[in-house]
Specification:
With about 425 residues, the chain is an alpha/beta fold. The chain folds into three domains: about 150 residues, 3-Layer(aba) Sandwich (Rossmann fold); about 210 residues, Nitrogenase molybdenum iron protein domain (Rossmann fold, 3-Layer(aba) Sandwich); about 30 residues, no CATH class. It is built from 17 helices and 14 strands. The strands form three sheets. The protein has a six-stranded parallel beta sheet with strand order 1-11-10-9-12-13, with helices on both faces. Strands 6-5-4-7-8 form a five-stranded parallel beta sheet, sandwiched between helices. Strand 4, helix 6 and strand 5 form a beta-alpha-beta unit. Pathway: Amino-acid biosynthesis; L-histidine biosynthesis; L-histidine from 5-phospho-alpha-D-ribose 1-diphosphate: step 9/9.
């Protein structure tokens, strides 16, 4: 794994390199995705089933696109009991964490006759996209559905690509049932996103679409934004570890590779104050790559976007982390909590050598749907707030408005909006 002594120029190059991974840069796919979205918008089910046949090799129709209760029961019987127990524990942890995020409506009444407030309302319907095919991602199912259920969303619709046999992966389907999905449809790709956004005869539209997917799914979500809300445009996975000379090199190397194995665009970066640790981690990485099953993918990820950055001080390490704004940030230093207080930009922060990134992916409770590609500078992890909306409440008595009406009229007239001013004035003629 390459070791770089960090300076201003190398930092600029690394940031530029990272930005190449941004899904917004994949213009070559945009036209294709837009065509699929428009086709599903115009032809509904007919287009949806054609694309499912073409891309997933599955023959679906209005009669079998929705998962039945019998299919759910069949799926649950196929899940190994030990895994089922782990999934239930994970779900309990996720629910307990997200219940702390609940917001309440509030009202503030003043003696002058004004009442201001905020009404919090759960979204009526949400679509959850879950990658499918041969792979199963039950953790993503739980992370997307549980916060929506905690927020009070009544209709939670999951879409996921079917296998060629027209069935959904049993582990994915079981997770959806446990978490509280109200409907599950066998549809994936840009066509499923379009169906959720505009509705078809078989899949009624939703108000918001969340969940990760490939570049086609990401661009489809971008294309339908405005017709519905979305969570974010997810980019490739990334991890950054801040470590000092006391860190365990084997632990650090293993944690870096936990994200590098996702795909060739994943990023794994160590920022350390110790050249000795840098060299040890590099050797450990090489050893792990030879042993791990996804070694070829890991190596390409490291060659493309893997770095060990050596800095002079922890302050410089923190500055580097805040500039990159990683999806996952691990702090493995002598005083990790002190370092944590200086972190401004990160999706999730893991503190100490026993808080490795997969703990957050599967079990601890905080959401693993996180901002990527530097968007942690202005985005947050998926949570209950993503499944609610807020309405302002305004009440003025006549007496309260009488004290303010001339000021409001003057303000409106300064903007040449005389009808605004008149709406207030007529009440005191």
């Amino acid at each position: 794994m390459r070791i770089v002594k960090l300076d201003e120029k190398s930092m600029e190059n690394i940031l530029a390199d990272m930005l190449k991974r941004d899904p917004n840069n994949y213009d070559s796919y945009t036209e294709t995705v837009q065509a699929i979205v428009e086709d599903v918008k115009e032809r509904g089910d007919e287009a949806l089933f054609e694309y499912t046949r073409r891309f997933d090799g599955a023959e679906l129709s209005a009669d079998n696109v929705r998962v039945t209760e019998a299919e759910i029961q069949e799926a649950m019987e196929q899940v190994e009991p030990g895994l089922l127990a782990v999934m239930k524990t994970s779900m309990e942890n996720i629910r307990r964490y997200h219940e702390k995020q609940r917001r309440n409506s509030w009202f503030d009444a003043q003696p002058d006759g004004t009442i201001l407030g905020q009404k919090v309302t759960a979204l009526e319907s949400v679509g959850v996209y879950v990658p499918g095919g041969k792979a199963a991602y039950p953790s993503s199912v739980l992370m997307n559905i549980v916060p929506a259920e905690v927020a009070g969303v009544k209709r939670i619709v999951m879409v996921t690509p079917p296998g060629k046999d027209g069935k959904v992966n049993p582990v994915t389907l079981t997770a959806a049932y446990l978490a509280g999905a109200t409907e599950v449809y066998k549809a994936g790709g840009a066509q499923a996103v379009a169906a959720l956004a505009f509705g078809t005869r078989s899949i009624p539209r939703v108000n918001k679409i969340v969940g990760p997917g490939n570049i086609f799914v990401a661009l489809a979500k971008k294309a339908v934004y405005g017709h519905v809300s979305i969570d974010s445009i997810a980019g490739p996975s990334e991890i950054l570890v801040i470590a000092d000379e006391g860190a365990n090199a084997r632990f650090v190397a293993a944690d870096l590779l936990s994200q590098a194995e996702h795909d060739e665009l994943a990023s794994a970066i160590l920022v350390t104050t110790s050249m000795e640790l840098a060299e040890q981690v590099s050797r450990e990485v090489d050893g792990f790559v030879r042993e791990l099953s996804r070694g070829e993918i890991i190596q390409k990820s490291l060659d493309n976007y893997g770095y060990i950055l050596v800095v002079d001080t922890l302050e410089e390490a923190v500055k580097t982390a805040n500039s990159i704004a990683p999806e996952h940030l691990e702090i493995v230093t002598a005083n990790p909590f002190e370092v944590m207080t200086k972190i401004q930009n990160a999706g999730a922060i893991f503190i100490g050598e026993y808080s490795s990134e997969p703990l957050g992916d599967y079990y601890a409770g905080p959401n693993h749907i996180l901002p990527t590609n530097g968007t942690a500078k202005f985005f947050s992890p998926l949570g209950v707030d993503d499944f609610i909306k807020k309405s302002s409440i305004i009440y003025y008595s006549r007496e309260a408005l009488e004290k303010a009406h001339r000021d409001i009229e003057a303000f409106a007239e300064s903007e040449h909006l005389t009808a605004h001013a008149n709406s207030i004035r007529v009440r005191f003629e």
